[in-house]
Structure formats: structure tokens, C-alpha cells
Amino acid sequence: FAKGVCNKLKGKVSQDAKGISLIKGVDVSESGIVLFSEEIGRALNIPMGVLSGANIANEVALEKFSETTIGSKIPEHGDLYFKMFNTPYFRVNVIQDTVGVELCGALKNVVAVAAGLSDGLEYGDNTKAAIIRRGLLEMRKFGKTFFGGVRTETFFESCGVADLITTCAGGRNRKVSEAFVTSGKPIQQLEAEMLNGQKLQGTSTAHDVHQFLSARGMVEQFPMFTTVYKIIYEGLPPTKIVEDI
Q1: What is the distance between the alpha carbons of residues 185 and 215, in angstroms, rounded to a whole number?
Q2: Active-site annotation holds for 240
């Protein structure tokens, strides 16, 4: 969708413009990973930053305190983004690791699916805490393995562990994955019933990440990502979310 929108904007954007992406996702295929911020930047020929964090929309709208992370490779642009977005109730921290910020926003959805499966099985808070911890480790490992410049510190920003906790406590990925266990219905049916036909980000990302890892013979190095994929798409029992990670 980003490419189509950018094509409509070509020639209509100022040469001095700067962009910032709030998209929590990446385009993953067997051939590689494309970051939406990079795709938009190339299409419009503008520098791009990334904003991501534990920012549930209605809570931000109600001016309840929250933090967010902005990634900007150019410090001067980071200063501009800070002035634009920082408020007393919306606290901004600017870092230069744009790739790490964007990856966190996508991969945390896969972990949220695992958390939802655990909730559906009524495994409790201790189990969910273990899933969050192990999921964060796999997120970091993925970033470090395929994007050498990703910084470990990024995963402890709002875009990392904070957004992961929020997403695993609520949100559509956790909710639909819980229903997947309790109802026995396939994900496609639950998407139609619970999301008005919208696609669930966590399951689609799990699918794409699995194809990417399979093409490189690395699925065994990411047991949680792999187990989520197999439960959703290959009929592996949901109990394996704990047994196989």
C-alpha cells in the first residue's frame, strides 16, 4: 500500500520535506526485508524518520501519559521531530537507530500472538512473562543477525520492551490469538468476525518471517517465531507455545 500512495505523491512533495513513518510493520519476503521508511524515502526522495512506541491510540488522544521512540539518522531532523511531537503527556526520546525502531514495531506483533495463545490456554501471568522475555530476545537476535547496525539499547526503549508489554497485555493480536485457542476457529474466520475482515499483523508477519528464515535455513535459531507459525498455519497444538520455545 505504501508504494501506491507514494506513487500518487510523486512530484507533489517539496524537495525540502522530511517524513516520519508511524507504520508498525515491515515488508518481509524470501528475498529480503524492506523497511517502509526506506521504501517511502526512496519513492519520494526525502529523508525519513520512524516513530514507534507503547502508544495505544485512544489513551494518547485522552492525553494519558505515554512515551514514544523516534528514530532519526540525522540529528538535526531528530531535533525537529522532537519539537513537533514532544508534549508533557507524550514524552519523546530520539535515537539514531531507525532500523531498530521499525523492526521492533513489526516483530512485537508475533510475540503478542504467542501471548494470546498462552492466555487462551489459561497459562497465567508467569508464563506470559516468560514469553515476553524470550520474545524480546528473539526480536533482538533477529535485528542483530540481519541488520548489523541495530543497537541492543533500542530494545529497551518504548518502541521495544514497553510496546511489547502493552501489545501482549491487550490489542488485536493478543485478543484474536486467544480466541483462536478458545473457539477453535481458523484465523481467517476470526479476522472476519472480530476485525471486519482486516488482516491480523502478527500472524501475517509470522508467516513472512518464517519464509524468510526458511530460505536461509535458520528456522531452528528462532524457536518462538517458528512455533507461532506452525501453530497458526500447520496445526501444531497451541500447548507447544511453551513446550517448544
Answers
A1: 30
A2: no
